[in-house]
Amino acid sequence: MITKSPEETIEAGRKYAGNLKGGEVIGLIGELGGGKTVFVKGLAEGLGIKDLITSPTFVLLKEYKLSPRHLHLEGVKTEVLGFMVHVDAYRVESFKDIKSIGIEDYLGRDNTIVIVEWAEKIRKTLPKNTIYIKFNHINENVREIILR
User: Fold this and answer.
1) pLDDT band at 133 (very low <50, low <70, confident <90, very high)
2) Phi and psi dihedrals of 55, rounded to 5?
3) CA angle, corner 90, sides to 145 and 115, nearest 5?
4) What pLDDT score does 66 carry?
5) Contact of 117 with 84, CB cutoff 8 Å
6) pTM value?
7) What is the pLDDT of residues 57-74, one digit of tens each?
8) Closest CA to 119 of 98, 100, 144
9) Rounded CA gap, 84 and 135, in Å?
10) What total number of domains does the chain contain?
């Protein structure tokens, strides 16, 4: 997918959020300024999160409450309160760093969607079924977004 403005990247994230049911781990890969955080803003909007989304570069992890919504839990639709967890691994230097923020507490929870920027830095920590999305910075406004 090609987006030609930050608004289009947000819209791509908003639309992608409609595919999420809970339990997903999404790894975002791409260079600085590639559109990862802008895409996360769209994901958050699509999930009904009203908070201002900023990259958790210095705190490494931010947790946002999801509005009650229908998630598929073991094949049954149930209204639950869930979480979107936004991780930024840019400053992570070791497995110990990422473990210290408690990321493992969120992985595999049916009512939680974990989004990791700079996922390539902690690939070994992430589950095998992690969904990877790559961002290529084409020019000032144009981004190529590749779902793997």
Assistant:
1) very high
2) -70, 130
3) 55
4) 85
5) no
6) 0.87
7) 777 899 998 866 545 555
8) 98
9) 20
10) 1
